[in-house]
Write a sequence for this structure.
């Protein structure tokens, strides 16, 4: 035991003493231990990157810190005082604030209202709007941000919305800011802006816990790194003291991503599955010429707002083509809805799993079988057996990491595994061409490598695969050929070793 007198003698540097720390935190869900005694420290004036594969326990750990979950054992130490658990109110009162992956904002309210959300100043039931505006102006100017405080949050970009959430946290006098994969939906530029803001907050003495799966971000932003693997701490170090390979090794152990581009498929490219010729869509893209053949993975790379996503969406009848043409399997088609696209053998993954296709509260097996319902249903129903068989057909091939039971709810799977289930859905439907928008958004490094392996394997077996992405690393990692889209136009076609980060960025525009 520490003698209290001795404790008094400790000279803690207030700038570097942990503001919040977890000590021996354990957490079990339904008898499964997902955190096995974690000691994480966040100190003022420093950024700790919390890294780990999906399912490693990162979100669970920070949810314990913000009071969403109660730990099974261990304690949370705030300013030197140990607590066996915190309530959300206690955590907030201690100055801890989290920017979750899903926005907590109110899109129909203004920026100013969002910044005061939950503590709108009022007197006798009358809101003090002047104070709402003053607070917003004050915090935004302290963050050197130029955001119209009267604008509806729904009119903002993802980056700006996230920033309003940070402003709200700061307006609440947060001392500890937790960000859960904050750049998943940001453009390169927006991510840079976010980083500079995080650095500024760090320099103001805030403690930052930054969850990410992107290694380049670890090096760009963090002072310390804490890697979780399967609920255990796999590595803790000063960021300066580690390299990429060590981080990957700690996170996933089993992958070697250091070796660069994977071997490309040996199968000669086959017939054209999808072809856009001089295709234009009102205001979204124009004069697009793109081909996707069987046996290849083609990436359409463009920054957010480039029009690349809309080109991808046009393959699924979600974006009208009003000049030029789209061919599917050599036939010019006029796709105006997804039903026709499915009938033509096109499989599609939207950039937003929740909106675009994953039925998250429904069983995994149903998610696989649902598009093949006409073929698989008996008397209009998908039986549990049929769903289990459908899942079994793809489980090993796509390396789906789940319980393997078709009845498991989709939402229990990690993002990467949900993506695999959706790929399985289209394979089960015998799709000829797969169009995947931002397939690894929010998916971390090990699961990404898995998914890339799956796509390459499918292509080598003759599938035509098109991914649309704003992540150049993804293009380099997986594509045989790539088109770059900027301002709605094709600015480059790159192949093989010509697909480099520099070439992609150069053609994608500033
Ligand atoms: P990460 O954020 O690193 O991806 P999580 O903390 O979300 O990981 O999950 C860690 C493990 O805990 C996973 O196996 C996940 O399935 C499980 N888990 C997380 N939340 C719950 C919950 N509410 N109920 C049951 N299991 C959960
Ligand atoms: Mg998480």
């Amino acid at each position: 035991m520490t003698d209290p007198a001795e404790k008094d003698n400790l000279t803690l540097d207030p700038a570097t003493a942990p503001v919040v720390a977890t000590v021996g935190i354990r957490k079990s869900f339904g008898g499964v231990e997902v955190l096995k005694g974690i000691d994480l420290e966040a100190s003022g004036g420093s950024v700790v990157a919390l890294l780990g594969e999906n399912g490693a326990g990162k979100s669970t750990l920070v949810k314990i810190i913000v009071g969403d979950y109660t730990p099974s054992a261990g304690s949370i130490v705030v300013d030197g005082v140990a607590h066996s658990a915190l309530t959300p109110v206690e955590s907030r009162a201690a100055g801890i604030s989290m920017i979750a992956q899903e926005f907590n904002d109110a899109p129909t309210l203004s920026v100013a209202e969002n910044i005061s959300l939950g503590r709108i100043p009022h007197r006798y039931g009358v809101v003090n709007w002047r104070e709402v505006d003053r607070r917003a102006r004050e915090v935004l100017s302290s963050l050197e941000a130029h955001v119209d405080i009267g604008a509806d949050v729904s009119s903002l970009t993802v980056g700006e919305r996230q920033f309003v959430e940070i402003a709200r946290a700061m307006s609440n006098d947060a001392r500890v800011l937790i960000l859960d994969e904050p750049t998943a939906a940001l453009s390169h530029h927006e991510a840079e802006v976010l980083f500079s803001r995080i650095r500024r907050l760090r320099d103001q003495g805030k403690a930052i816990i930054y969850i990410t799966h992107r290694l380049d971000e670890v090096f760009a932003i963090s002072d310390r790194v804490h890697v979780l693997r399967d609920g255990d701490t796999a590595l803790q170090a000063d960021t300066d003291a580690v390299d990429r390979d060590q981080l990957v090794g700690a996170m996933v152990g089993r992958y070697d991503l250091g070796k660069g581009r994977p071997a490309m498929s040996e199968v000669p490219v086959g017939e054209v599955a999808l072809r856009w010729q001089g295709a234009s869509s009102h205001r979204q893209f124009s004069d697009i010429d793109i081909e996707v053949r069987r046996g290849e993975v083609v990436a359409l790379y463009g920054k957010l707002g480039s029009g690349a996503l809309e080109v991808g969406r046009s393959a699924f009848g979600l974006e009208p083509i009003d000049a030029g043409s789209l061919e599917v399997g050599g036939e010019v088609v006029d796709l105006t809805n997804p039903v026709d696209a499915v009938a033509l053998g096109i499989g599609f993954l939207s950039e937003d799993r929740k909106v675009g296709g994953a039925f998250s509260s429904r069983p995994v097996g149903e998610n696989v079988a649902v598009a093949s319902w006409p073929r698989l249903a008996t008397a209009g129903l998908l039986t549990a057996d049929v769903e289990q068989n459908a899942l079994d057909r793809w489980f090993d091939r796509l390396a789906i990491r789940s319980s393997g039971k078709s009845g498991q709810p989709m939402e229990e799977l990690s993002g990467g595994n949900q993506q695999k289930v959706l790929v399985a859905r289209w394979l089960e439907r015998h799709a000829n061409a797969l169009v995947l928008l931002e397939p690894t958004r929010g998916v971390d490094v090990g699961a990404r490598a898995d998914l890339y392996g799956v796509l390459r394997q499918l292509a080598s077996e003759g599938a035509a695969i098109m991914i649309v992405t704003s992540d150049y690393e993804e293009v380099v990692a997986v594509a045989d050929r790539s088109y770059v889209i900027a301002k709605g136009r094709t600015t480059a076609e790159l192949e093989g070793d010509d697909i480099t980060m520099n070439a992609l960025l150069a053609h994608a525009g500033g």
